[in-house]
C-alpha cells in the first residue's frame, strides 16, 4: 500500500519537534534549550517551503501563506524602448515556477492603521 500524503501543518511540525526536545525538571517545569527551539522553527519553515515548492498551499499563522505560482512562457518579439523610442528585441522566456507570498487581511489592516506608525 502506498503511504498517504498528508497536508503540511506548520503548527503540528513545530509542536512535534518541541515535544521531542522538551525535558521536565524535578519541580515539574518544562525546559527547552534555546538552540533546540530555534532549530525546530527553522526546520518547520524549511519543510513548509519544500511543501510549497511541491505545489501545496502552506499557511504560516499570523504572517501569511506561501504557494507556487506558474509563470507562462513568453515568445521573443520586437518592442520599443519607452525612454528613448528606439526599437529593441525582447528575448523569449521559458515557463517557470516561482514562490508567491500573500499576507492575511489582519496584517494588512495593521499596517494600514496610522495609529501603529
Characterization of this structure:
The chain is α+β, with helices and mostly antiparallel strands and 117 residues long. The chain has a domain at 10-68 and 100-116. The protein is built from 3 helices and 7 strands, in the order αββαβββββα. The chain has a 3-stranded antiparallel sheet, with helices on one face. Strands 1-2 form a two-stranded antiparallel ribbon. α1 runs antiparallel to α2. The chain is elongated.
Question: Care to give the gist of this entry?
Answer:
The protein is of the alpha+beta class and 117 residues long.
Please state the average pLDDT score: 92
Please provide the count of β strands. Answer: 7
Q: The biggest beta sheet, please?
A: 3 strands, antiparallel
* Helix-strand sequence: HEEHEEEEEH
In DSSP terms (H or I, runs of 4 or more residues), the helix count works out at 3
Please report the distance between the alpha carbons of the first and last residues. Answer: 56 Å
Strand order of the largest sheet: 3-4-7
Query: Which geometry do the CA atoms define?
Result: elongated
Uncertain runs are none
Gyration radius, rounded: 23 Å
Strand percentage, roughly? 25-35%
Helix content: 25-40%
List its salient traits:
3 helices, 117 residues, alpha+beta, 34% helix
Element layout with pairings:
Blueprint: H1 10-21, E1 23-24, E2 30-31, H2 34-53, E3 58-60, E4 64-71, E5 77-80, E6 87-90, E7 96-102, H3 105-112
Antiparallel strand pairs: 1-2, 3-4, 4-7, 5-6
Amino acid at each position: 500500500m502506498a503511504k498517504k500524503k498528508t497536508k503540511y501543518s506548520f503548527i503540528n511540525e513545530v509542536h512535534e519537534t518541541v515535544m521531542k526536545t522538551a525535558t521536565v525538571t524535578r519541580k515539574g517545569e518544562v525546559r527547552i534549550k534555546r538552540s533546540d527551539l530555534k532549530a525546530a522553527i527553522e526546520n518547520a519553515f524549511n519543510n513548509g517551503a519544500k511543501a510549497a515548492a511541491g505545489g501545496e498551499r502552506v499557511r504560516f499563522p499570523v504572517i501569511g501563506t506561501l504557494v507556487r505560482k506558474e509563470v507562462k512562457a513568453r515568445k521573443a518579439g520586437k518592442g520599443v524602448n519607452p525612454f528613448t523610442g528606439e526599437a529593441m528585441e525582447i528575448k523569449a522566456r521559458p515557463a517557470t515556477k516561482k514562490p508567491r507570498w500573500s499576507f492575511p487581511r489582519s496584517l494588512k489592516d495593521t499596517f494600514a492603521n496610522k495609529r501603529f506608525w
